[in-house]
Write a structure and sequence with these properties.
Number of domains: 3
Strand order of the largest sheet: 3-2-1-4-5
Order of helices and strands: HHHHHHHHHHHHEEHEHEHEHHH
CATH architecture of the largest domain: 3-Layer(aba) Sandwich
Radius of gyration: 21 Å
Largest sheet: 5 strands, parallel
Bound molecules: flavin-adenine dinucleotide
Helix content: 40-55%
Structural class: alpha/beta
């Protein structure tokens, strides 16, 4: 599937950013919660698939926005971009939350094999055949476009969990398989937040009046759950220390490995680094398959080819696309060019990070070092994601200044 909403090209990402930046101030603050349907989306940026794969970096997005607005006028938009950074940092310090999501999801999928009633209900929800107004439309929209507005994601997740009483992990999995911006941190923690697991005791309840008002009166579902009790769950774990940032061995030429978590990540390299070759991995490791669904796989493959072209021109060196994180292909490229170091932007918690870890072990056995390098944006912000977003957001002015954006 290719979707007309999101052209998988780096210059399409930049064009969208340039077109949206003038609207990221008062217009965004006043209108962003409105979901008037797929044809009327000028109230939000539609940048998430590009930001999620770092075809656009957060600092680039906010630099463009701050050319048109003061930080005060663009406060709401800036905060939304930092919500993403916050969720990424939160999960980075609690990787077991991602692993327990995967385990729980696998257990629920197993149930589908043996419980025809549950299987029929989940299939009806995914195919938009529940009879719940709005919900069925969002299920179709997600599958057809690879995108849902933030408010629709909240309504959909709430109805899935509390009205249809389906397992939340299967809903999160449905999103992961169809969203072009499908993201381990933002999706898992978004669903946990709706379910009352992320902020213990506090659920998100979808309400017919709120849906009617913010969907431009397109939908007013009846029969929604009136009471939403938080799902039983363990309290969120305490944050563990982040791994220490790595450095490249001095003076060594490198093979730069870009991947679907950071397609423009050559910014992580120190200025003097000699890049002898670039490879862009469009998928994950065979043991850690990624992207989660076919639409994103096709989309990321196109973007990866574009990223390889871009790297070839900017770095003036050979570049190519790999279907996945493949140690044998990387080893061969290193041997041909007599390289002993592969530099890569660090991938946050998720299948790409798991794949990179495995490739690092496989390459180490061949005497080649794979060095993940943390982006400055993440290194500055993640350590603050220890508590809730309201504490984190107090750091935003300092983070903007430290990134040279004020
Ligand atoms: C249940 C649920 C699941 C979600 N799953 C994902 C996901 O898999 N991937 C993903 O990128 N976002 C996810 N979100 C967050 C949010 O819905 C999308 O980022 C947003 O709708 C993207 O549209 P946009 O780019 O037009 O956003 P805009 O409103 O224009 O926001 C600008 C940018 O800020 C970030 N952002 C905006 N809202 C949020 C938010 N609530 N949380 C974190 N970051 C945000 C995104 O990077 C976005 O591109 C989820 C939210 C919920 C409630």
């Amino acid at each position: 599937m290719t979707t007309p909403l999101f052209t998988p090209r780096l210059n399409a990402a930049r064009a969208r950013l340039e077109a949206f930046a003038p609207l990221a101030g008062r217009h965004y603050a006043a209108e962003r919660n409105r979901d008037s349907g797929p044809e009327r989306r000028d109230n939000v940026s539609l940048l998430s698939p590009y930001i999620r794969h770092r075809a656009l970096a957060e600092h680039e997005v906010l630099a463009a926005v701050l050319q048109h607005h003061t930080p005060e006028t663009a406060e709401k938009f800036i905060q939304e971009v930092f919500w993403r950074t916050y969720w990424k940092g939160w999960l980075q310090m609690r990787p077991q939350v991602w692993r327990s999501f995967l385990d729980e999801c696998a257990a629920q999928r197993e149930r589908l094999e043996h419980e025809p009633g549950l299987r029929a209900a989940v299939t009806a929800a995914e195919q938009g055949r529940t009879g719940v107004e709005g919900f069925d439309d969002w299920a179709h929209e997600l599958v057809q476009t690879g995108y849902l507005h933030n408010h629709a994601r909240m309504w959909f997740a709430s109805i899935w969990i509390f009205t249809l009483q389906l397992p939340w992990t299967l809903g999160a999995d449905f999103f992961l398989r169809h969203l072009l911006d499908a993201d381990p941190a933002t999706n898992t923690l978004g669903w946990r937040w709706v379910a009352g697991i992320q902020t213990p005791g506090k659920t998100y309840r979808a309400d017919a009046d709120n849906i009617a008002r913010f969907s431009n009166h397109r939908f007013r579902p009846s029969g929604l759950a009136r009471e939403t009790h938080p799902l039983p769950a363990e309290a969120p774990p305490s944050p563990a220390p982040l791994s220490a940032p790595r450095d490249l061995p001095a003076g060594e030429p490198v093979l730069l490995l870009l991947h679907g978590d950071d397609l423009c990540g050559d910014a992580v390299l120190p200025a003097a680094t000699r890049v002898a070759a670039v490879r862009v991995a469009a998928g994950g490791h065979t043991q850690h398959p990624w992207p989660f669904g076919a639409p994103a796989a096709e989309w990321v493959t196109c973007l990866a080819a574009d990223a390889a072209d871009h790297a070839r021109h900017t770095r003036q060196c050979p570049s190519g696309v790999l279907p996945g994180l493949d140690a044998a292909a990387l080893r061969q490229a290193c041997v041909e060019m007599d390289l002993r170091v592969v530099a890569t932007p660090e991938a946050p918690v998720g299948p790409v990070a798991d794949g990179l870890e495995r490739v690092a072990r496989e390459l180490a056995a061949e005497g080649i070092e794979l060095v993940p390098l943390r982006r400055r944006w993440d290194a500055l912000a993640w350590p603050h994601a220890t508590h809730g977003f309201f504490r984190f957001k107090r750091q935003i002015p300092e983070l903007l200044a430290a990134n040279g954006l004020l």
